[in-house]
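My current task is to audit a protein record that another person submitted. What it holds is a sequence and that sequence's fold in token form. Thanks in advance; the entry in question is below.
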Amino acid sequence: QIQLVESGGGTVQAGDSLRLSCTASGRTFTLHAMGWFRQAPGKERDFVARIWWGGTSTVADSVKDRFSISRDNAKNTVCLQMNSLRSEDTAVYYCAAASGVTTRWGQGTQVTVSS
């Protein structure tokens, strides 16, 4: 099994930056990708960014000019760097880890951007 621990959420003002981290533990040798999704109140969970273990990454068009994803192989950690935050970025951000055909989810971390 894979366990995920997220950190880095909080309340910031519009224009600020935040860095979210997600560390995987357990059967990490089975991982082939990790990423981030977000869910705003009353909305569906949306894809934000993903990085494969080979190094290729994808970021949603809606945030790709402000967000980036990176990976520390040695620490089994994936980070989401969020710059120029806007009120519409307010959501619960979930880390996801792909292991075989299974996706594991973190508990979520709240990001609130005040205007």
Q: What stands out?
A: Residues 97 and 109 are 15 Å apart (CA to CA). The two ends are 40 Å apart (CA to CA). The first strand starts at residue 2 and ends at 7.
